C-alpha cells in the first residue's frame, strides 16, 4: 500500500486544536478550560514551533479565542462547526501520502452524540487541502497510537467494544486498520482507565515515545484506581516486538494518582495524554499532583525537545486532555 500513519514525533505541517466554545456543555468550567487551551496554544506556537490552527465551534468561542489569542504569532483562528473540542476523535487521521482518513463517529459508543461532530473530519481535510478518504466503520483517533512504521497500539476494551462495530474480532479490526491506515502489526492491550467514557482509549494508557519504546504509567500514591490496568499493559508489552521486529522496551512513568471527580469517583487523569510538538512535549498536570516526576521522565525520553507541564484540570472535566483535543497534520 505504501502509506502509514507518521509517528507523532515526525515533523508537522500544522497542529489542529479544538477551542471550548459551548457554554451549555462546559458550564462553570468554560472560562477555565478556555484559559488552559489558550496556554496550550501559546506553548505549541512558541517553544513547540508549531503552526497552530485553532478550530472554534460557535461564534461565542470564536470571540473568546480572538480575545485571548488574536494576533499571536503562528496561531490561526479557524471558525468551524463541532459538537465539542475532541478533535483527536472526530477529526481525520493523516497518513504519509497526505490523505486525510475519515471515519464514522458515534459519540464514543452512543454516549455523547452532538451536532456537527460528524462534520469535523471534512472541515479539517478541506482546510488542510488534503483529499478526504472516508471509511465506513467507527474509529476514534485516541483509540490508537502509532510508531510511524506500521505498529499500532490499541485496547480491546475500546476497539472490540460492541457499541462501536458489532461483530468485530481482532482479525476484522486488524484488516480494517491495515486497509485504512497501513497498519502492519496491531498490539492489543486490555482495559484502559476507569471512568473513561471513551471505553479505554490507549492514549491515556500507553504511548510510543521512540521506535521500539513504549511509555506506560506506574501507579502513584495511595489508592490509584488504575494500578491493575497499568501493570497489565506493561506485562503484555514486555517481550513483544514491533512491525520491524524490534523487541519493545517498556518505560514506566508515574501516574497522577487519584484525581477526584465531582461525583466522588476518580477522573481519568493521565500524563500519557501528552502531546508531541515539533520542538516540545506538552504534558498535562492536574491540581492535586504537580507532575514533576512525569515531566522528568519525559525529559529523559525526549532529550531534543523542551518538556512543558501545563494545567489541564478544567479540560479534564470534559473527559480528556491535550492529546484528546488535538490532531497533527504531518509535514
Please explain how this structure is put together.
The protein has a single domain, classed as L-arginine/glycine Amidinotransferase, Chain A (5-stranded Propeller). The protein is built from 11 helices and 16 strands. By secondary structure, it is of the alpha/beta class. The protein has helices at 23-26, 30-45, 59-69, 87-90, 107-110, 120-128, 156-159, 170-181, 227-237, 292-301, 313-316; strands at residues 12-18, 52-56, 75-79, 93-94, 99-104, 131-138, 145-146, 151-155, 185-189, 207-210, 213-218, 249-254, 275-276, 280-285, 306-311, 326-330. A hairpin with a 4-residue loop joins strand 7 and strand 8 (151-155). It is 27% helix and 24% strand. The mean pLDDT is 96. Helix 2 packs across helix 3. The chain starts with 11 loop residues before the first strand and ends with a strand. It has a 4-stranded mixed sheet with strand order 3-2-1-16. A 3-stranded mixed sheet has the order 4-5-6. A 3-stranded mixed sheet has the order 7-8-9, with helices on both faces.
